[in-house]
TrEMBL record:
Gene3D superfamilies in the record: 1.25.40.1050, 2.170.260.40, 2.30.30.30, 2.30.30.750
Domain called Exoribonuclease Xrn1 D2/D3: residue spans: 307-531
Single GO BP term: rRNA catabolic process
Species classification: Eukaryota, Fungi, Dikarya, Basidiomycota, Agaricomycotina
A GO molecular-function annotation: RNA binding
Organism, as annotated: Amanita muscaria (strain Koide BX008)
GO terms under cellular component: nucleus
Polar residues: bias regions: 705-714
Location of the 5'-3' exoribonuclease 1 SH3-like domain: 551-617
Name used for this protein in its record: Uncharacterized protein
Residue span(s) of domain Xrn1 helical: 1-63
Matching InterPro entries: 5_3_exoribonuclease, Rib_uL2_dom2, SH3_12, XRN1_D1, XRN1_D1_sf, XRN1_D2_D3, Xrn1_helical, XRN1_SH3_sf
Length: 782
C-alpha cells in the first residue's frame, strides 16, 4: 500500500480530491479515488503469499465459529493474541468452545410477521407508531424544510385530529396537571405535567392553605404574557408543519411538561421516577400528547424496596460508604431483616496515596494565557482581526460555496472553546502561547488573508477579492492544506466550563501510580468485618446509576470504578485528568483492553472517558453514611470549587472589576452588608396641625389627582420603595435644609402668621432630616 515500487500504489493515493456536491462539511464529501481492480489486487498479493508463516495462513483461512461463555469459576490467564498491540488478560473469566451454526434440517422459512406480534398503538415501548394519535394523511405541496431548503415536490402531510378542541382549559388542567403525559409523538417520551396555559391564564395546582388539598388555580399572564404565549404557540405549530410535515391545527392550549430523567433510588431501597427541574421544562401542544400508552417501558417502572436478603445475597460484591472506609470494596457476609454485615478489604495507604495524587495537580505549573488585546498586540494585528481569524472566517469561493478559512479556536455564541488554545475569563477571551504562535505562522504564510480582516460591514468576503494577486482556487487549497497539516480541523470544541490537565502533569500522575503498583502487595491488605450497617451504607454496582447523581468532581480527584458494566474493571482506581460536559477523562492505575491514550495524553490502555455516575469520588466524599451514631460527624473540610457544567450559549458571568454590569446582572449582596431597615415616614399621611394642635383622628390625605382617602395617622402603611430611611434614631436627627421628589403631595401650608408643625413639602424620600418649604420656620418633628 505504501511501497513506491508497488504495482498497485495508485489504489491508495495520499492526495485526492473531495467533491462536496453541495454539502458543507468535508466528511460529507465524496472521495474521488479510483475503484480497485480485483484482478490486479490478487496478482499483487500472489507474489507475496510465500512470505506468510503457517500461522498467518491459518489466520487468513476460514475457521470454525467459536462460542464464548462466562465462567464463574477461578479466572485464568489468557496471553495476548497480538503481542505489542493487545495486552494479555490477567483475570479472564471466559470459556471458548467450537460452535456449529444451526441448520434448517428439513424446516422451511416462514415469511412475514409472527403470530401475535404487537403493531401500531399496541407496539412495545420504544417502537414509534403514528397510530398512537388519531390522524389522517394527504399528498400535497407543503414546502417541508428538513435539510435547509423547502421541498419542491409533493410531500405526505399528516393531519392531527384534536380531541380537546371543544374542552375548556380549566377542565383540561383539572384532568392533566400533576399527572404524567407522553410527548414527542411519534417517538413518545414520558413527562410530568406541572401546568396548563392558554392565551389568558396559566393553570397550576397548589394549596390554598398550609397542608390543605391542592386545587387548580388560574393566574392571569403578565402584561407581555399573552404576546409571548402566542409566539410560543405559533412556533410549535410552525415547527410541526414546516419541519415535520404535521398539521396540528390551531394551538389553543399548551402543556408545561418536565421530561422524565430516570429513576432515583431512595434510602429505603425503593425506585421512584425522577423528573427534570424547572430549568428544563418544555411546552407542548395538548393535541400532540397522550395521557396513557398501551405498553409501559419496564426500565422506568417504579418498584418497592426488596428484602435485604434478596437484594444483597451472601457473597455480593459492593462498596462501603461508611465514614472510616469510604469507597472500599466489600463483600456481604450476612443479612437480616433490617441490616447487613460486610467484610472489607482495606489498603492502609489509600488515604496517603489520594493526597499525593491531589498534590501533583495542585502544584502543577499553570499554562500562561494572554488577554485578547495583548495577544493581538504580540501578533501585530488588531483586536477585530484576532477575533475574526480565531473563530470562523467564511469566504465565498468562485463556485459560490462558503469556505471556512478561520482557525475555529473560539465560538462566542455557542460558548465553546478549544482546550490548550483558548478560554474565557469573565467576559474576555484569552489565548495561550500555542494559539499565538499558530496565528503568527498563519499571518506569515498567508498575509493577504489578514489584510481583509479589518474591513467593516457584515458582507462576506469573496475569494476573488481576497486573493486578487493569486489564483484564488489554488490559494484556497494551499490554505486548507496548511490548516489540515496543523490539525486545525481536528480541534474539538468543548464547553467553556470544561478543563483538562497537561500531558506533563498526566505523566507525573502515571509515574506515581506505577510506583504504588510496584510497592503494593496482597500481604498489605487488612480485612475487617462490619456488622449492623443499614442498607444505604453500601453501594451495589447496579445501583450506581441511580444513587450517584449530581456528584461533583475536580481535576486530580481520586476515583474508583463502581459500575460492573463497561470497559473499566470493577473497583479499578484512577485520577481525573479532564472534565467534559457529560463525562470525565480518567487515567487509570492499571491497563485494560478497552483503554485508550485520550489523544496521546497518557500511555496506551490507561485512559478512558466515563460518565460521572460510574465512579465514586474518593478525594471529595459526598455520599458518606454514618454507621456509628455515637460518634460526632467528621468536620467538613474546604474543597476545590465543584465542577458544574452549564449549557447554553450565554453563561452567566460577573462583570470585570471596575466595569458596569451587563443588563440583567445583579451582583449578590455582600455577606457583611447589614439588613435594610424599612422605616415609616412620619411626614406622610398627616396634616399640618390646626391652631397648633396635633390631631390623631381620621383625616383626609390629599393625592396628586385631587382625590382624598380617609386614613388614620397613627399607623400609616409603609411602602417598600418610598419608606426607606437611614437607621439613625429619630431623636438624634437635626434639622437640615434638603428636599427630594416623590409621589405624595405636600401637606397643607401654614398661613403667614402660623408656624406649621410640619413644613416639609413631601417631595422625596426622607434623608434623615427635614427641610421646611412653607412660609414659617421649620420645626423638628416630635
Amino acid at each position: 500500500m505504501d511501497d513506491p515500487k508497488s504495482s498497485i500504489l495508485d489504489f491508495y493515493p495520499l492526495d485526492f480530491e473531495l467533491d462536496l456536491n453541495g454539502k458543507k462539511q468535508e466528511w460529507e464529501a465524496i472521495v474521488k479515488i479510483p475503484f480497485i481492480d480485483e484482478a490486479r489486487l490478487l496478482d499483487a498479493m500472489a507474489g507475496r503469499d510465500h512470505r506468510l508463516t503457517d500461522e498467518e495462513r491459518r489466520r487468513n483461512a476460514f475457521g470454525t465459529s467459536t462460542k464464548f461463555t462466562y465462567n464463574p469459576d477461578e479466572p485464568i490467564y489468557y496471553p495476548s493474541s497480538l503481542p505489542g498491540f493487545f495486552p494479555p488478560l490477567h483475570r479472564c473469566q471466559c470459556v471458548m468452545e467450537p460452535f456449529d451454526l444451526p441448520t434448517l434440517d428439513g424446516l422451511h422459512l416462514v415469511p412475514g410477521l409472527c403470530e401475535g406480534v404487537f403493531l401500531g398503538a399496541e407496539a412495545l415501548a420504544g417502537f414509534p407508531s403514528l397510530q398512537t394519535l388519531p390522524h389522517s394523511a394527504s399528498l400535497a405541496h407543503h414546502g417541508v424544510n428538513v435539510h435547509g431548503s423547502e421541498s419542491r415536490n409533493k410531500s405526505m402531510v399528516v393531519h392531527i385530529e384534536n380531541p380537546h378542541e371543544a374542552r375548556k382549559s380549566q377542565e383540561i388542567a383539572e384532568e392533566m396537571v400533576g399527572e404524567r403525559t407522553f410527548m414527542g409523538w411519534p417517538f413518545l417520551q414520558e413527562g410530568l405535567v406541572v401546568a396548563v396555559s392558554d392565551p389568558l391564564f396559566k393553570y397550576e395546582k397548589t394549596s390554598i392553605v398550609a397542608d390543605g388539598p391542592k386545587r387548580v388555580i388560574s393566574t392571569p399572564h403578565m402584561q407581555q404574557g399573552p404576546g409571548h404565549w402566542k409566539m410560543k404557540a405559533e412556533r410549535i405549530e410552525e415547527r410541526y408543519s414546516k419541519r415535520l410535515g404535521v398539521i396540528t391545527g390551531e394551538v389553543e392550549v399548551l402543556l408545561h411538561v418536565r421530561p422524565l430523567k430516570g429513576l432515583k433510588r431512595l434510602e429505603t431501597g425503593a425506585l421512584v421516577k425522577d423528573y427534570e427541574g424547572q430549568n428544563k421544562e418544555v411546552e407542548e401542544a395538548v393535541q400532540m400528547c397522550l395521557s396513557k400508552v398501551a405498553s409501559e417501558d419496564s426500565r422506568f417502572m417504579e418498584r418497592e424496596a426488596p428484602p435485604l436478603a434478596d437484594e444483597f445475597p451472601e457473597g455480593t460484591r459492593l462498596f462501603f460508604l461508611g465514614e472510616h472506609a469510604y469507597g472500599v470494596a466489600a463483600q456481604v457476609s450476612a443479612t437480616n431483616e433490617t441490616n447487613l454485615s460486610v467484610m472489607l478489604a482495606i489498603f492502609p495507604t489509600d488515604k496517603t496515596e489520594t493526597e499525593k495524587f491531589k498534590a501533583i495537580v495542585d502544584n502543577r505549573a499553570a499554562a500562561q494565557y494572554w488577554p485578547s488585546f495583548k495577544a493581538a498586540e504580540t501578533i501585530g494585528i488588531s483586536g477585530r482581526a484576532l477575533s475574526k481569524i480565531a473563530s470562523s472566517l467564511m469566504v465565498i469561493g468562485l463556485d459560490g460555496q462558503k469556505i471556512n478559512l478561520g482557525l475555529s479556536l473560539k465560538f462566542e455564541a455557542k460558548a465553546l472553546k478549544v482546550v490548550n488554545y483558548s478560554r474565557k475569563e469573565g467576559r474576555y477571551w484569552e489565548f495561550s502561547q500555542k494559539a499565538i504562535d499558530l496565528i503568527r505562522e498563519y499571518k506569515e504564510k498567508f498575509p493577504e488573508v489578514f489584510l481583509n480582516l479589518d474591513r467593516g460591514g457584515d458582507e462576506m468576503a469573496r475569494a476573488a477579492n481576497v486573493f486578487a494577486a493569486f489564483d484564488p482556487e489554488r490559494r484556497i487549497k494551499e490554505i486548507q492544506g496548511w490548516l489540515k497539516s496543523k490539525g486545525v480541523r481536528d480541534f474539538e470544541p468543548v464547553s467553556l466550563f470544561c478543563d483538562q490537565l497537561s500531558k506533563d502533569t498526566v505523566t507525573e500522575v502515571e509515574k506515581l501510580a506505577n510506583h504504588f503498583n510496584t510497592t503494593r502487595n496482597s500481604a498489605g491488605i487488612k480485612k475487617a468485618i462490619v456488622k449492623g450497617i443499614p442498607r444505604q451504607a453500601v453501594l451495589k454496582p447496579a445501583h450506581a446509576l441511580y444513587r450517584l447523581q449530581n456528584q461533583r468532581f475536580a481535576l486530580g480527584d481520586r476515583v474508583t470504578m463502581v459500575q460492573d458494566s463497561g470497559g473499566v474493571p470493577l473497583s479499578a482506581k484512577g485520577v481525573v485528568i479532564g472534565l467534559n460536559a457529560k463525562s470525565m477523562d480518567v487515567v487509570w492505575d492499571i491497563p485494560f483492553m478497552s483503554g485508550v491514550t485520550l489523544g496521546d495524553r497518557c500511555s496506551e490502555y490507561r485512559g478512558l472517558s466515563v460518565p460521572f455516575n460510574s465512579c465514586l469520588n474518593l478525594t471529595n466524599p459526598q455520599f458518606v453514611v454514618r454507621t456509628n451514631s455515637k460518634e460526632p460527624p467528621p468536620p467538613s473540610r474546604p474543597t476545590a470549587a465543584p465542577f458544574k457544567p452549564r449549557f447554553g450559549p450565554h453563561p452567566e458571568v460577573k462583570p470585570a472589576p471596575g466595569q458596569q454590569a451587563a443588563a440583567g446582572f445583579r451582583p449578590p449582596n455582600s455577606p457583611s452588608q447589614g439588613p435594610v431597615r424599612i422605616m415609616s415616614n412620619p411626614n406622610r399621611m398627616m396634616r399640618a396641625p390646626a391652631n397648633g394642635h396635633q390631631h390623631t383622628t381620621h383625616h383626609a390625605v390629599h393625592q396628586n389627582d385631587g382625590a382624598s382617602i380617609n386614613s388614620t395617622a397613627k399607623s400609616p402603611a409603609p411602602h417598600p420603595n418610598r419608606d426607606r430611611d437611614n437607621s439613625t434614631p429619630q431623636a438624634d436627627r437635626q434639622p437640615l435644609n434638603g428636599s427630594g421628589r416623590g409621589a405624595h403631595g405636600p401637606p397643607p401650608r401654614g398661613g403667614r402668621g402660623h408656624v406649621p408643625r410640619y413644613a416639609d413639602r413631601g417631595r422625596g424620600v426622607l434623608r434623615g432630616n427635614y427641610r421646611g418649604r412653607g412660609r414659617g420656620t421649620a420645626v423638628t418633628p416630635m
